[in-house]
Amino acid sequence: MAYSGDKYTNVQDAQEHRLIDIYGTEVGDSIPGQDEKDLKRVPSKESNSAARSIVQSPWKRRLRQYGVPGMYLALFFLYTVYVVFSLVYDPAGAIFVCLLEAVLLFIVIFKIFRVEIWKPVLSLQSKFLVRVKRPLRTKIRIIVTVVVTLALVVFLIWDIWSSVRRFIPIGGIAIFVIVLWITSTSPKKVQWMTVTWGLLLQFGMGIVILRWPVGYAACKFLGDSVSQFLSYADAGSKFVFGDPGYTLHPVAFKVLPVVIFFSAVVSVLYYLGIMQFIIRVIAAVLRFLMQTAPIESFATAAHIFIGQVASSVILKPFLNDLTNSELHAVLTSGFATVAGTVMAAYIEFGVPAEHVISASFMSAPAALAVAKIAFPETKQTDFKISKEMELEVGKERNIMEAVSVGAMGAVRLVANVVVNLVAFVAILAFIDATLSYFGSRVGHPEVSFDATFIMGIPWSDCRVVGKLIGKKIVINEFLAFADLGGYITAGDIQGRSAVVSTYILCGFGSIAAMGINLGALSAAEPRKRKDFAKLMLRAMVAGNIACFMTACVAGILYQDEPDMISITNATYALNSTLQNLTTNSNIRDIVTSSTPVSVTVP
To answer: Taking every annotated instance into account, which residue ranges of this chain make up the domain Concentrative nucleoside transporter C-terminal (predicted)?
Structure first.
């Protein structure tokens, strides 16, 4: 082996020296200074197999280099042939397979040409950063922010001018921001640019989902598709608990099996690396627009899908290096969002699926905005972007093992839900009876504060929604969503109240959640236990306020029955076409309960 100082004459020499470094065995000539005892060692079978895996033959290297892309192209070609046959057979029913074709095309292009795609993008970014200095970039950002804000203000004035009631949630947002600023740890240090972009992202997603016809139709179709997909969990429930019996105990035998089913699906998505890609994209968007720290953006994006308890394992290497402001932002985003597995249970209760899905996404930027008002950054953080800040691809050997691991992992979650429901429902009944007793002694057996009115809830439903908020905070959001689903099914609340309540309740902000998060985070990083305990209550309140502000945005943008006619007519054809992609049974009507019932399928 030719060896000259720290350099090697060819790749083979470098590989051979690597083998000596790892296994202490000689593959070629000796290296200066090497102990003769090492040369006499006989490599074991494991060493030989490892050596063969490192020094591969040329054809194996070519197979690894071109085989995987070739497999992707072959599978894509076969699916393209299938799409062509589908279009010939039934063009109207082939929309979904065409959309899937577009997604697969993007994946194939990204997998094969990702270097060629990112290289010019990174080059342009580098040139921009070199030529445009920081002061000029700041001015450009301010100008863009002002223009976008003015455009939003003009749109809101034009949109809600004829509906005075929809002005009320604007005052609600102002009240929440003022309260947060007054109670802030450092009011003078608040970065209002970050706060503004958090609100702009909220309104942007709200406009796309609630006001844009195509966005509303797409989100409605996504919600119905998710509901249909989750309904397949009933097959497992029927097989295990019996066909008539599983419907007699809906929470235990119908709702909780959905959590197990969806947990298995999420595990498969992690095994395939799909969920990691989605989280990275969302984190990059949040960081670019809101200029938040990498760990804050990453944690917020992760909380949308996996929740705060599971994310504590991912964040463990970084928790000890976070400032209190960054830690508060991480905690707040956990309280303001819900994990995807729990989201599935809420949908099963009968709550509109499209609004459950959009609520968690809309609350993510709101959580960062609220956190940066309540606890702004006062220290210079040294936290940098790290390659370690990644969600590892599942270590399971195949998809079957991923399904099994995901299902078994849901056992603990289901057990926690069951025992908490039993305990806290009983405690709530006792506390409610106690307060009613003392209140009745002075002529007020029931006391409520109708703060939900400033979020856009009609006055007649304020007390009902107020009870739901109380149950969410005192017990947990699971029981609150169960009651909300019952109100919707029975028609006890208006459509507007049902939609806005979904945004209010879609968060992990309860007293019980404080204990759960404190235990999980303390186990991940015991050295920060005191900081966790000190920030937990403030973060829980901030997380709930983020959900309330999201509800205010929904209250501003959501249109009542007379106003929804134009949007429904504009999107009806698209919705009818999309419905052909799913079965006709077990799918809710194309419009929510708040949409005019006069719109029927022809």
So the answer is: 355-555
